[in-house]
Design brief:
Elements: H1 7-28, H2 64-70, E1 81-88, H3 90-93, H4 103-109, E2 113-114, E3 117-125, H5 131-141, E4 148-153, H6 155-158, H7 166-170, H8 172-181, H9 189-194, H10 208-227, H11 267-276, E5 281-285, H12 306-322, E6 326-329, H13 348-366
Helix pairs in contact: 4-13, 5-8, 5-11
C-alpha cells in the first residue's frame, strides 16, 4: 500500500476545496447577518454596536440586518408594552456615557405608563449625522411595530453631504433604493451608484471584514452582559465646552447669508414620515450648546454660525407645517452647563433633563 504523501497534490486539493467553498458561499449568500446570539442566548443590546477600532471591547458594524439582530428592539414585543423608538446621531447614541445614563436609559427610569401598559424607550441612535441613514433605520424598525418613532435631527443631519460615509457604502443598495423612491438629491449619489459589486465581494474572502466583526460581536455579548453595559469605550470625565467660539461666520465653506434651501434635504423629512407609514413620527430639532462668550454674537457654537442655524430652523418649521409633520423644536431647551465634548452631546444630568421635558409630549402622543 502506497502511503507516500504528495505535498503538491495536497496543496492543490486544499486550494480547490477552498475555492469551491467560497463559490458556494457567494452563490447561496447565506443570511449570516440574521443569525445572532442576542435576544436568544443573551439579552439584546441597548445600543447599536459601535466603537473604536483600537478598543478590543467594542466593535462597529455597518450591516443593518446584523446591527438590528443584536439590538433589543428585535426581541418579541410583549402585550403590555408600548414601544417608543429614538432615531438620531451620536447625541442620541450617547457617546462617552454608560447605557444607564443615555437618554433612553434616563427616560425609562422615569417609568412612563399608559393605561397600565409600560412605555419602553429604545435607543437606535448611531454616530453618523446622515439623513439617509436615518431613513434606512426608520424603514428597518417599522418591521418591529413600534408605537411611536421620535426622530432627532440637527442642521448637520439635514445638510446635504458631499462624500460617502462607511454606513452608506455598506448599505449601498438600500440607500440608492431610498433615494430613488423619494427623489432625494443626495450629493454623492452618483458615486454610490457607480460602485459595482463583483462576485469576489460576496465570497468568504470578500466578506472577511464583515464576518470577523460579526463574530467579534457575538463573542463580546457574554462579556458585555456580565459587565452590565454594552459600550466599553473608556468613560473618562468629558471636558466642558468653552463659552468662547471661533470668529469665522462660515458654515461648510458657505459665506454668511447664503441661501441654504437648496443645500438642505428637506424632502427627506417628509420621506421619513412616509416610510414610517401608519407609525406616528415626532420630528425633534435636538438641543444645541449656546455659547455666551467671545464671538457668541457670530456663532451659537463651533458647529453652527447664527445665520445658518436660524435659517435652518425657519426652513424646518416651514417644511413641517406644509407637510403636516408633527414637529417639536428643542434647540434651546437645555442650559449650556449640561453640554460636554461637543455642542450636541449632553452629560448624564442633561439627558435626564431632556427626558423630563420630552415626557409630557410623549404621553400626549401614546396616551391622549
Amino acid at each position: 500500500m502506497n502511503t507516500d504523501v504528495r505535498p503538491v497534490a495536497v496543496v492543490v486539493k486544499a486550494l480547490c476545496l477552498f475555492v469551491l467553498i467560497n463559490v458556494v458561499y457567494a452563490a447561496t449568500k447565506p443570511p449570516i447577518a440574521d443569525i445572532s446570539t442576542y435576544n436568544s442566548l443573551i439579552p439584546g443590546l441597548e445600543r447599536l454596536p459601535f466603537g473604536n477600532a483600537s478598543d478590543p471591547y467594542t466593535v462597529t458594524l455597518d450591516n443593518v440586518d446584523a446591527m438590528f439582530a443584536a439590538h433589543e428592539i428585535s426581541a418579541e414585543k410583549t402585550s403590555n408594552e408600548i414601544r417608543v423608538v429614538l432615531i438620531g446621531d451620536s447625541s442620541i447614541f450617547g457617546e462617552s456615557l454608560l447605557s444607564d445614563d443615555i437618554l433612553s436609559g434616563q427616560w425609562n427610569r422615569l417609568g412612563p405608563q399608559c393605561n397600565g401598559k409600560k412605555i419602553k424607550i429604545y435607543n437606535l441612535g448611531y454616530p453618523h449625522p446622515s439623513i439617509i441613514k436615518d431613513l434606512i433605520f426608520i424603514e428597518e424598525v417599522a418591521e418591529q411595530q413600534p408605537d411611536v418613532i421620535i426622530w432627532f435631527v440637527t442642521l448637520n443631519t439635514v445638510m446635504n453631504q458631499y462624500r460617502l460615509n462607511p454606513f452608506l457604502t455598506g448599505n449601498r443598495e438600500r440607500a440608492l433604493k431610498m433615494m430613488e423612491a423619494y427623489d432625494i438629491p443626495f450629493g454623492p449619489r452618483k458615486d454610490l451608484s457607480e460602485q459595482t459589486t463583483v462576485f469576489y465581494q460576496d465570497t468568504i474572502v470578500g466578506q472577511r471584514s464583515f464576518l470577523a466583526r460579526w463574530l467579534k460581536l457575538q463573542t463580546l455579548g457574554l462579556l458585555w452582559y456580565t459587565a452590565g453595559d454594552d459600550f466599553h469605550l473608556e468613560h473618562e470625565n468629558p471636558e466642558t465646552i468653552s463659552a468662547d467660539v471661533k470668529k469665522s461666520p462660515s458654515y461648510r465653506d458657505l459665506p454668511p447669508d447664503s441661501d441654504l434651501k437648496e443645500s438642505l434635504l428637506l424632502g427627506a423629512l417628509t420621506a421619513g414620515r412616509d416610510v414610517a407609514d401608519e407609525i406616528p413620527v415626532l420630528l425633534v430639532n435636538e438641543p444645541i450648546f449656546i455659547a455666551s462668550g467671545l464671538h457668541s454674537d457670530v456663532r451659537y457654537n463651533d458647529l453652527y454660525p447664527r445665520w445658518a442655524y436660524d435659517q435652518y430652523r425657519g426652513l424646518l418649521v416651514e417644511q413641517a407645517q406644509q407637510n403636516s409633520i408633527n414637529y417639536l423644536d428643542m434647540w434651546n431647551a437645555i442650559p449650556p452647563e449640561f453640554f460636554v465634548d461637543t455642542p450636541l452631546h449632553l452629560s448624564a444630568a442633561g439627558e435626564r433633563l431632556l427626558a423630563e421635558q420630552l415626557n409630557p409630549k410623549l404621553l400626549s402622543l401614546v396616551c391622549p
